[in-house]
Amino acid sequence: MKLLKLFFRKINDNFISYRFNKLTIFLWLTILSFLIIFNSSFFVNAQQVPKDPKQAIFNGKMLNMERKLGEQYQTFFQRNIVVNNEQSSLEIAAVLADIDKKTGINSAVIWVIPEEKYLHLVYLSKQGNIFVKDLDEAPLNKITKVVQDFYFEIDQINNPMNLAQSQQLYKWIIEPFKKEFLDAENINSILFCIANQVPLIPLSALHDGKNFLVEKYSVARIPAFNLINTEYKPLKNVRVLAMGASNFPDSVPLPAVNLELQNIQRLQNRSKTLSSTEILLNENFTQQNMQRQLQKNSFNIIHLATHANFNPGDTTDSYIQFWNDKLTLDQMSNIPWQTPPDLLVLSACNTAIGDRNAQLGFTGIALQSGVNSALGTLWSVSDLGTFALISEFYEQLINQSEKNHTKAEALRQAQNLLLQEKVYFEDNRLITPHGNIDLPESLGVKGKINLSHPFYWAGFTLISSPW
Q1: Which of 1-10, 235-244, 347-356: highest mean pLDDT?
Q2: The domain 238-464: what is its CATH number?
Q3: What residues contact residue 294 under an 8 Å CB cut-off, 6+ apart?
Q4: To the nearest whole number, what is the mean pLDDT of the chain?
Q5: What integer is the mean pLDDT of 296-307?
Q6: Where along the chain do its domains lie?
């Protein structure tokens, strides 16, 4: 930039002093060509900066915010994580517009950045304008306490549930943009980028006084917009590698895992989208066997029905449990994909809610493993509840219509079916709108088990790309 200014100043000086001979013109044109080649990014970026002065200032602050978020993940994982170059607000809006057109959804991004004395909120949709709200009533210590109380209330599985914390978080995070932007733009899909100072929020269970957020919006949690893969590929000819264990040598049994993997395989028989399913169960569920499968085949979906923990400390303290050993978070970047899968499903995982490093690990699993999206849980959900939710998620993901065909929408539909009591257990059967699934007598499911409480569905969170 400074070199270009100097160049034009020199041109002006030479023009005024009439010292333009052929040699001078040739030299200056050569310099200009060199500067254009090495400063082309300046011209491109200049075209993408909003013309409105206020929006240009917001754009600069947004880029700085995105940069800091990205640096947190790179510091935690101790490696460069580059997915997209820095995109301005207009470039992000163009990406949203393109994907919305392909998927039939209407998307928006909301950044939630808790500061010590206030809550900083930023909104952006395909309209391209940035809107900022700062809430003095929600300092970091206050919002942290409300989230922790929210977790405690969900964990009690009380009916009816006390919705005070849920509604308070809705008031702080959603309500500032509700009428003027979310409603006015018919938004039905929200990407939340939440700074890691605050505990992980079960966003789908936020409540407006009448309904849960999941009843209207599909949601995903992103590490930063510039850290997600924004390429949309409809699911076709899907290959699944489904792995897990119902019994472990040194861990608590997960008796419904057998059913979970069998049900994925069963879907193949009546789906045009799911082309093949490979199963690794119990003693076959090893890292060595997984690597053999990955060396032979490329998979669109990797499904892990097992224990996983994202613990305080560094990346070696967080892990996914295999039959006989653990795959630690720092090892996930070395998984030998032929082609990175579109989706990684961790169907029985949990995370420490109060530790920043644990949150970075949980929200960074897609970045570390190289997949586009990951599905995990925020707490230790029930084994049977996981089976019900995951079964319905795959039903929606594999067999939903082309309209609104995204992973986030498939999860939303599955969560709503549990919430609306259309998916439940009764007398050794899982009852679903698509048919019933018989359960082994050994599971001892007697009478009706209702899964409408947020404990059973709100912990499931899509991370990184919602598409």
Answers
A1: 235-244
A2: 3.40.50
A3: 241, 335, 336, 337, 338
A4: 89
A5: 95
A6: 2-38, 53-227, 238-464
Q: Is 285 helix (H, G, I), strand (E, B) or coil?
A: coil
pTM, entire model: 0.89
Angle between helices 22-38 and 2-16 (to 10 degrees): 160
| pLDDT top residue among 16 and 420 | 420
> 286: Cβ–Cβ under 8 A, 6 or more apart, which residues?
280, 322, 323, 324, 325
Cα–Cα nearest to 466, from 418, 406, 412: 406
Distance from C-alpha of 147 to C-alpha of 168, rounded to nearest angstrom: 10
Among positive and negative, which fits the CA dihedral 229, 454, 188, 389?
positive
Please report which confidence band the pLDDT of residue 417 belongs to, taking 50, 70 and 90 as the band edges: very high
User: In 19-52, where does DSSP find H-type helix?
Assistant: 22-38, 40-48
Tens digit of each residue's pLDDT (9 = 90 or more) over 324-347: 899 999 999 999 999 999 999 998
Instruction: Round to whole Å and give the CA distance between 301 and 240.
Output: 5
For residue 10, give every residue at least 6 positions away whose Cβ sits within 8 Å of its Cβ, in sequence order, or none: 28
d(CA 50, CA 67): 19
The one-letter code for the residue type at 95 is: V
Cβ atoms 125, 118 nearer than 8 A: no
Widest pairwise Cα distance in the chain: 98
Q: Which residues contact 71 (CB under 8 A, 6 or more apart)?
A: none
Distances (CA, A) of 44 to 316, 341, 418: 41, 32, 48
More confident residue, 210 or 40: 210
Residue 40 structure tokens: 């082309």
Statement: residue 7 has pLDDT above 80: no
Contact call for residues 202 and 148 (beta carbons, < 8 A): no
Residue 350 has a pLDDT of 72
Structure confidence at residue 23 (pLDDT): 54
d(CA 297, CA 340): 11
Mean pLDDT of 167-194: 98
Residue with tokens 């498939």: 410
